[in-house]
Amino acid sequence: MKTLKNTKIFLLLISLLLIVAGCSQSGASDSQTANAGTKEPATGGNLTYALATSPDTLDPHRSSLAVSVRAFRTIYDSLVVQDENNEIQPWLATEWEVSEDGKSYTFKLREDVTFHDGTPFNAEAVKYNFDRIINPETKALNSVALLAPYESAEVVDEFTVKLNLSTPSASFLSNLSQAMLGIVSPTAAEKDGEQFGKNPVGTGPFKFVSWTENTEIAVEKNEEYNWAPAYVENQGAPYLDTLTFKIIPEEATRIGSVQSGQVLAAETVPPQNIVALENDPENHLLKVNTLGLPYTLFFNQREEPWNDVNVRRAVLQAVDVDAIVKTLYMGTYERAWSPLSPGILGYDKSLENSWETDIAAANKLLDEAGYAIGADGVREKDGEKLTLNYVDASPNREKRNDIAVIVQQQLKEVGIAVEVNITPDYRTVIYENSEYDLYGNSMVNSDPNALRNIYHTPEKTRVLESLVGGYDERLDELLEQGTVEADPVKREEIYKEAQHIIIDQAMIIPVYVFPYTVAASNKVDGIVFDTLGYPLFNDANISQ
Fold first, then answer.
1. Cα–Cα distance between 86 and 28 in angstroms, integer?
2. Are 390 and 407 a contacting pair, CB within 8 Å?
3. Who is most buried in 6, 141, 372, 528, counting CB within 10 A?
4. CB 503: neighbour CB atoms within 10 A?
């Protein structure tokens, strides 16, 4: 029944932004306030910080993983920053003008910034970076989608650059604030080519030192740093001498390392450890909901019978998401109801509690679709059993593999046989071969325009369809309008209608909003989060 076997480059780009983390802006703001240092920061020392998975590369333009951004924000800066109020503020760019037609942005740049290798930051460097991203030889991933609809750059003078777009884009400035559009050293990128991701050079608060595969990444203080974004208190060089990211995938080991003092901080605290950490006299818990698209199960509508909206609706009504979230996350994760996470522009709260698990209704829809219960309890039609190929990635991050097992048991009640396939090579299976009926993922993003890459009918510039593979004409219109509409109030209404169509058409099953959690020793202070939920270490310090 596989109908899509073409070259799959663009969908790999949606591995793009789809790689993890979820988000709530209000949560980010709360954490920034709650966890900012309240006493005089200590200087010096090495902060050891355990990551749940390993970055794929330290080249921001070629990465597809949210975990990589933890390191990117130490090494690279961006042109602008998005604050907790969704306002765009200066960073490497001091000011900018937008043309009347919305198709060009002219940026004035800081004149005092230098890359870690001594290369000056200027308009030529900005042009180099963005041209590098759209160059097919770079094999860029998420950054290509974020930079769209960029076409070209013009160097007006040494510290003025004009960026030209093919169409207006309401999300362009917001996207420029993201770490995967961080500015790399042109000198280093040219010198190291394919190996730049192993020898990264930016303008950030820390300089790269070393990367031992699947073990650790080390960075050190950039003594010259003096151009931090407005949402950190420390505008100069970091207080820490060094920062070491330890790669510890096994969650019990990772959190145990904090409790035993082997590392000073660790990300992604398991739900069963959260309550204990909140009452731990030696350690404390930092928590922020991530922003973007929540963890979601996507139907592959290229496959029969998942191109039938009523069959999809039957699955939506048969899956008890509340039971999944309560069982696996013990009240520490928020249930998702929309293709967008709370806190992002346009999130529609009215979708919350707008449907419930209804086994009788699910059975009725499957009966009407012509699927009868067989002797083995599995429905069939025209001699074919109703089997759902549920694909998930390994390792079992955030207990996602466990979700697949629970869904398998729940759908058995309505006569759907679920085959759970766990693979480390999700890129090939999902994004190249489209060999799935249901697949779960999430996306960290600052703007609802992220929906367009997933739910819009393929455009001429794309090589292939998006993750859901099923489209709606009105939804296409809304996503196109949302891209260019400048009025935020009108954009909100556009995206609210879009969310309703996606849910009404049962294109997805939203599951949870991912809370980024960090367990830290009480010796550690000053770790804050950006608006997407990523940790920042400019203010981090260690008391002796």
1. 12
2. yes
3. 141
4. 20
Q: How far apart are CA 322 and CA 517, in angstroms?
A: 21
Q: Is 88 left (phi over 0), alpha (psi -120 to 50) or beta?
A: beta
Q: Which two tokens stand for residue 263?
A: 């590392």
488: cis peptide before it, omega within 30°? Answer: no
> Is pLDDT at 14 greater than 70 in this prediction?
no
Exposed, middle or buried by CB within 10 Å (0-12, 13-18, 19+), for 57? buried
What domains are there in the chain, each with its CATH number? 25-289+516-542 (3.40.190.10), 291-513 (3.10.105.10)
Token pair listed for 192: 């190291």
Percent of the chain exceeding pLDDT 90 equals 79
Locate 206 and state its tokens: 């820390």
Q: Which amino acid is present at 331?
A: G
Across 59-72, average pLDDT? 94
pLDDT of 29: 37
Q: Is 77 left (phi over 0), alpha (psi -120 to 50) or beta?
A: beta
Q: Which helix (H) or strand (E) holds 510?
A: strand 508-513
Q: State phi, psi for 54 to the nearest 5 degrees.
A: -95, 140
Phi first, then psi, for residue 275 (nearest 5°) are -60, -40
Distance CA 51, CA 500 (A): 36
Distances (CA, A) of 497 to 233, 346, 472, 518: 39, 9, 12, 35
Reading the block at residue 455, the tokens are 């739910």
Residue 353's CB is within 10 A of a number of other CB atoms, namely: 10
- What pLDDT sits at residue 208? 98
